[in-house]
Amino acid sequence: MKKICLLLLAFLAVTPQAFSQKNNKDVFPDGTKIPNWFLDATKINPSDLGKFYSVTDYGAVNDSTIVQTKAIQKTIDEAYNNGGGVVVIPKGVFMSGALFFRANTHLHVSEGATLKGSDNINDYPKMPSRIEGQSIEYFTALVNAYGINGFTITGKGTIDGNGLKYWEAFWQRRKENPNCTNLEVSRPRLVFIWKCDNVQVQDVKLHNSGFWTSHYYQCNNVKILDLHIFSPHEPVKAPSTDAIDIDVCTNMLIKGCYMAVNDDAIALKGGKGPWADKDLSNGGNENIIIEDCEFGFCHAALTSGSEAIHNKNILMRNCTVNDAKRLLWLKMRPDTPQNYEYITVENIKGYAYSLIYVKPWTQFFDLKGRKEVPLSYSDHITLRNIDLKCDVFYDMKITEYDKLSNFTFENLKVEAKNGAVDKSIIKGLTLKNVVVNNKVIK
């Protein structure tokens, strides 16, 4: 009996801690439960999506020098007209301009296949679109899906933007005018998915985009699994090739991906400008999980902004960073009202130039006649269980219009050339077991 009582007491002592540890893994940063949807990373079998339609059956040929947009679009349209199915890019190289997927159609890029983008911007017609926090007419992407619930991209092949010509044109323009905007040189994105719910993109390689690599706008329930996303930073830098742009989206899982691009790897967008929060085409991003990913060269592994108004419940965990300029970058844009809240980055190892970077983003600053500068907030930001080498640990500088509060740094082991911490920048900075250059920071 005595032994049973001791066992019961031990169980009661351990159980709350065990439950606490378990719940810590199963909740978003604001404490709400993570739905089971996020725990299911099952791959889609394209055979379950309907009949296969190979582009070679509709006139496309294995030739990397011929633009074959008409034949590939004909394949998509045929699948749609027959009730839907999977458009297959078989082994080989097939060059195309903008493609428009339709209801119940999907894309499968076979292993050994490349869907190659044309380097002629005329092959990407302008349409009502979304870019850099603005709803404007802009060039279409190589792969476009609008209002297609359940849209999928599968296969172990490559979607290649063939971006060199666009990159060179951009740098030439920047040489002529150092203040030129990103939109002054006409460039297509690689993948643009708009107003689509229950999307899954898995296994494919997204390489050499002319502009943003993949852009998700006004989407819900999106899973991005095991992608390889790459655009070079040398010898020719591929400008503005963000790996994944999340723009007014809810419920997104990014898992098992490799990202190395000459801009931000994962960028949280949503709108810009002094009245951005009043524009119905703008909005926030909520419930985003990034896990088990690896980051090569990038300007930041995770960026909030610069065209963003509200980001909440962003969880990045169990990732390796090899050559990022920043691990977490909060872009405080002084011409835009912003609220970044409940963002957690945890269980990270590797190298980044800066561990956390928070500074005003003043590029193309424009109050558009608004007299007062809008306030921006970052609240409940947590960095936990991080083992990182960096040049600058705490790279932060703000203005009177930036309000930072309730930051928690917990279990950090950092080697830094500059390990200084200015606690005055944040209202409510909590440091728990923060070791920088073998010294505990209190």
UniProtKB/TrEMBL annotation:
Alphabetized GO MF terms: polygalacturonase activity
Keywords: Glycosidase, Hydrolase, Signal
Superkingdom in the source lineage: Bacteria
Signal peptide as annotated in the record: 1-20
InterPro entries named in the record: GH28_Enzymes, Glyco_hydro_28, Pectin_lyas_fold, Pectin_lyase_fold/virulence
GO terms for biological process, alphabetical: carbohydrate metabolic process
Stated family: Belongs to the glycosyl hydrolase 28 family.
Name of the protein: Exopolygalacturonase
UniProt source species: Flavobacterium seoulense
